[in-house]
Amino acid sequence: MTGQITEDQSASLALLSDPATYVLTAGEPVRRIDTHASHVFLAGDRAWKMKRALRYPYLDYGTAERRRWACEREVALNRRTAPSLYLGTAALRRRAGGLALDPSGEGEGEAVEWLVVMRRFPDDALLDRMAERGLLTPDLMRRAADAIAAFHREAEVARDGAGLAAMRAVVAENVEEFRSRPDLFDRARVDDIEARSNEALDRLAPLLDRRRAQGLVRRCHGDLHLRNLCLVDGEPTLFDAIEFNDAFTRIDVLYDLAFLLMDLVHRDRVDLATVVLNEYARDGRRLDGLATLPLFMATRAAIRAKVVGSAVALGGIDEAQRRDIDIYLGLAQRLLRPYRPLLVAVGGLPGTGKTTVARAAAPALGGVSTPE
Fold first, then answer.
1. CA torsion, points 131, 146, 276, 163, in degrees to nearest 10?
2. Residues 263-298: pLDDT tens digits?
3. Average pLDDT, stretch 333-337?
4. How far apart are CA 174 and CA 184, in angstroms?
5. Between the chain's N and C termini, which has fewer beta carbons within 10 Å?
6. Do residues 212 and 251 touch, judged by C-beta distance below 8 A?
7. What's the confidence (pLDDT) of residue 164?
8. Structural domains present in the chain
9. Closest by alpha carbon to 154, among 295, 20, 285?
10. Euclidean distance between CA atoms 178 and 158, whole angstroms
């Protein structure tokens, strides 16, 4: 879970934090955003993303060359869905006067860092920000589902991608990392998640491998939650797909979708999660895999808990983050519990609005947990 820092990047961070590094209007600030894997600098109409010099078990940005590869790959993969956002790569180069920004990435001097260059968009265009302000609507989420379905339809088939064995590995890795930090992750919850996940894997084994044989394992996004969806020219757009580990992206299309569904459920928007799933199903993709969604969504919740826990290595963890970990683990447990099916029949004469009523009612109906 903890990352191994491989280089001191303080000089690069200082340069990128300085407004004089960029062509900006006088007095215009530079805003810095830190994540567990990157530093992002918002300056003028551009966003400059620098990878942290570190290694996790699942990620290697340990050398400048590895960071260059990751930046170039991030641009290439994300241009599939957001070509207008991903402008290219830049470099920080060592020159006689010290470090300097090379916006084109093609200048002279030793490159000590590489950057992804993006067109900046307003924070309010992020769907997670819209969710916080209560601005997500069924129409918007249907359009998001259509964008995801179109992306999955065109994505490269990965015949050697994630099937049963890969999902078992993900579950095992989550549990191993949880148990390495008993101060953060409740042992009883972890044991329950492990047992229920393995039961689900045993039950779903034929289905998981059948879906792979049907070509439903593809090169997907890999990190498809609300924060990685934004409005570009008014349309929901996927961005920030994972570039650093193919195992995270060569996955079942429903495992990709499950991250967004889990995020909506986590935010108490089961209604919008239902809207997304129903609209995605209209695309005509094989949905015999619906039985996989509780496991897929629970695994996504466990991964979110793990990512929050990684903040420990990057400067400590506060009480809000501890609560987030507990909430995500609790959600994973609930998703893995059996549910009783619910059937609702809507009747009436032709033209009386049966479809309208059913469409309005369905998002408000949820599964009923089977008593333990």
1. -110
2. 999 999 999 999 999 999 986 656 678 999 999 999
3. 95
4. 13
5. C
6. no
7. 84
8. 4-120 (3.30.200), 127-337 (3.90.1200), 340-372 (no CATH)
9. 285
10. 29
